[in-house]
Amino acid sequence: MSDVITCPSGLTGRIRGMKVREERILADRKLAKHGGQMDQLLESCWEETLDPGPYDFGDAAKPDWGKVLQGDRFFALLMVRVQTYGHEYAFGVGCQNGACRARIQWEVDLTQLPMRALSDESRAAFLAGNRFETTLPDAGNRVVFKLLTGDDERKLPALQRAAPDRLLSAVLAYRVLEIDGVDAKAKRQFLEELTMRDADFLVDEFDRVDCGVDTTIEIECPECFLAQEVELPFDKGFFLPGRDRTARRRARSSSSQA
Ligand SMILES: [Zn+2]
């Protein structure tokens, strides 16, 4: 089965569902460690590019996924999942109510998640070197930042491991390219001193100009009826639900024995 999809930036192509051989990609530990699994999966399942959108891939038939915006990559992966297993995605999460803690089984239609297209303004800023501008409300400085691509996505886990106690400033320093009136060497220091209001504002600005799929979903616990927001689980079970199914069966039989 294959289908034509249009990503949030306008990148359009034909994708196919996963084949059994793609399990090898997901099981490859070396690839997992270097964050190349998703690139490999996209590379395998993207059959042809019909419209490169804002990207310049030269004469290559397939996208250079390192250059592609995170929002597009994620959308394409969702659609690979849809091509492989259909629209519905079933998963289990623990209830957030500490007094309940029931295991909630939920199902979403992956084609119904809200998608935000890349605006014309953002497309222009991306084409002009992936440079986006904003002004910090408290500090007053003008700031230039970038949207994340596949190459960045690969680098972020290492960055987060290196500074687990200063995650926010590490991520901000990675995405902020320039700050008016602040020397490049003093950038990190400046970001550490930002008010939380400025930091929140910056993160909101990152989101505002970005494209992608909204993966926060509201669910309700069938036991205690608490409505709660969860992030769509995006792990190995997303692409290999068979393993999840085995785990669910085991969990069910052990709880019925208890
Ligand atoms: Zn509950």
Outline the structure in words.
- This protein is an alpha+beta fold.
- It contains eleven helices and twelve strands.
- It has helices spanning 23-27, 29-33, 37-45, 70-85, 120-127, 150-162, 167-175, 187-192, 196-209, 236-239, 241-257, and strands at 2-6, 12-16, 46-51, 88-94, 103-109, 115-116, 132-135, 142-145, 176-179, 212-213, 216-220, 227-231.
- The strands form five sheets. Strands 1-2-3 form a three-stranded antiparallel β-sheet. It has a three-stranded antiparallel β-sheet with strand order 7-8-9.
- Strand 4 (88-94) and strand 5 (103-109) form a beta hairpin.
- The longest helix has 17 residues, at 241-257.
- The model has no long low-confidence stretch (mean pLDDT 90).
Keywords:
258 residues, alpha+beta, three-stranded antiparallel beta sheet, 11 helices, globular, binds zinc ion
Order of helices and strands: EEHHHEHEEEHEEHHEHHEEEHH
The beta-strand count equals 12
Distinct small-molecule ligands in the complex: zinc ion
Low-confidence stretches: none
Average pLDDT, to the nearest integer?
90
Radius of gyration: 21 Å
Give the overall shape, derived from the CA principal axes. globular
Q: What structural category characterises the helix and strand content?
A: alpha+beta
Number of helices: 11
* Widest sheet, order of strands: 1-2-3
Strand content: 15-25%
